[in-house]
Fold these 3 entries.
Entry 1:
Amino acid sequence: MTLQQLKYVIEIANRGSMNEAAKRLFISQPSLSNAIKDLEEELRITIFERTNKGISLSKEGAEFLGYARQVVEQAELLEGRYLNAKPSPQHFSVSTQHYAFAVNAFVNLVQEYGQEEYELALRETKTYEIIQDVKTLRSEIGILYLNEFNAKVINRLLKDAGLHFNSLFTARPHVFISIHNPLAKQSIVTIDDLQNYPYLSFEQGEYNSFHFSEEILSTLSHKKSIRVNDRATLFNLLIGLNGYTISTGVLCADLNGNEIIPVPLDCDETINVGWISHKNATLSKLGAAYIEALQEAIS
């Protein structure tokens, strides 16, 4: 086992493709495949599972990747200390539902840990795609919520994908509305109060089941309903149309301004927001730092 082989494993996991990893490493795909095959034979484990749809980490591979990242990070520290070597570009990716605090944490991560070179990704995307991104290691971490209604379906998908849910916080439901909305003066709103206002929700594409909705109470019917794909559009419609959406109540004024406020929603539901990752994978340095930044952002 060589340090180069460990770097190969990390690059393949980052790219989710043997071919893409080979291009980034400036070697041929057969050479890369043979190097991984030799490593697997030496260790007597299967790191990557090959299918017609591509490659994915095995259960053993996810655990191995965590150790490989630690070894490579330590080796780079040694090289930087004694050989004045240029540090390798940092890699990190997170997929998340549309939470302002997730973006705020990402900003803080880059400000504190960003080197001269880095390749990072923040994907605000659909619920099902978050699970698939983490399953295939397109992203190291995913952020979504569980509640009594969706937990059975989401937990089954996580179990089948070898992923683990880690709770960040449990929130009471709030509505996000414009400060100019007549309901902004109320200390709490009811479902009946909201009936004449446009309901805004995030489009879930092919997997548009109620269980994948980013908003709780997804089975309720609405006289006025608009689906959107991104957070900026939703916030603009909150202001422009006096619309509302249902979420955690956690906002960041630094990023989102003061035109939108959370108002508690009168209902008995709770929202358990957390992050998902591979069960047997150790978080990278940036992954662990991002979790810390998340905890600070929501505190």
Entry 2:
Amino acid sequence: MIDQDTKDLLARIAGALERMAPEPEPEIRITEADAFVWHAGGQRLEPVPNINRVDIALLQGISRQQDQLIDNTKRFTNGFPANNALLWGARGTGKSSLVKAVHALINKENPGSLALIEIHREDIPSLPTLLTKLRSEERRCLIFCDDLSFDGEDEAYKSLKAVLDGGVEGRPENVIFYATSNRRHLMPRDMIENERSSAINPSEATEEKVSLSDRFGLWLGFHNVDQNTYFEIIEGYAKHYGLNDPSVDLRAEANEWSVTRGARSGRVAWQYIQDLAGRLGKTLD
């Protein structure tokens, strides 16, 4: 039997521990914002009030990819069948910018119709938990993972495979998954070759990992732009942000900037525009 003094002491200790404990995070509803970041540690969605993105009209040289992604996303938002999408290719060619711009376009035409949820690469194993939270929601949700890839003995891809095309429950009807990657098969070529050279059955050794990209019904390839397209991107940005200064030889400066970076891409163009705006004392609002 516990005497009264001990009971009082235990009650005071319990009360102190309760006061020290952090307040529980309030449950975020999917209708509270148009964009969220998924935090696997706390299993919660954090609203994003201001999304970092560019207007879709400023994206040059990717009109085919743009049309296909818009069409796929509109069908999904309208309740019709649509495919998970993998946007793969060269760095800085507008893959993630296009996803965010399409999301903005959809919600501009039909406000609140589509929620964008970003999941970080390292949180992919928690994807089934996120889908469980979203399964009962009426709102359409686009889960987006930027720069997705797998290396070495990374087993996280198994969680993604089950979500995309397998598992008992399958992907909820109100959820679609878009990912960007520099790799078409989401893994380095030398890793694929090593698997093939060291395995007893080379085809089976790589099939499990390479087949992950097959779970994406829509593949969109992105490649470095030519010089004319690069100039079109620069001039589009300059016009949009009011940076057409007669003292600036826009094409000459933009060309020199690309040479110093060793590439021509939308990202390189944006970096030049930021430098130009800074020199002209203008903001990019």
Entry 3:
Amino acid sequence: MEKLIITAALTGAEVTREQQPALPITPDEIAEAAYECYKAGASIVHIHARENDGTPTQSYEVYKEIKEKIEAKCNIIFQPSTGGATWHTPEQRLQPVELSPEMATLSAGTCNFGEDVFMNSEEYMEKFAKRMQELGVKPEIEVFERGMIDNATRLVKKGLINGNLHFDFVLGVPGACPGHPEDLMYMVNKIPAGSTWTVAGIGRHETPLAAMGILLGGHVRVGFEDNVYYSRGVRAKSNAELVERVARLAKELGREVATPDEAREILGLAKK
């Protein structure tokens, strides 16, 4: 079984300091959180940028500052979000891709997202995939519902995604696919042969699905974007604490954790 890639999703676009006092917001705070997660075993850091007042932003300049500050600390894989907040325009959402990161997320369909709707029309998906292809950015295909796998394979048939696919199953979002074990098994069995995948369990689903991801040969995402608690009613002290638990679980289950360069090899990225 290949080594485990741990992704740390540090901030998201919805979590507030009221919900999680340790939430990193400024570029300096996000870079420091990324470094702590790197030391804990993460090889990818998934980034949503914020203004200093906590407002979600897709600003090219803010992402650039975050990217540079992280790269000054460690060689973890910088993976910006093109999802942003549900109210960002497609043009705003696409701005971080202009930094030519090694990877970026590509949401593969529209779904209910709590009280909102996360809109990803075929036009949006094709535009995002084409720009990533032009800049040599590997898409991490974000899947919130089963049909999004088919949307992704259509992008492949249209020549807009090249190479082996990498999926991120985001399970347990209110309004989208639940986060039960059978939901993950179903998703894993429907992706094209040769694909790699990560699972991100929302809220209480985070740790059980992380354990499944380790055992099934997939990869795991944890962090405040998905879950602010360490256990029932107990807030996590940091994103790194959530990464440390996954690394510890992997060790107990006999699976080694990948370094950033090993993750690059698994995902087909060029070493930095």
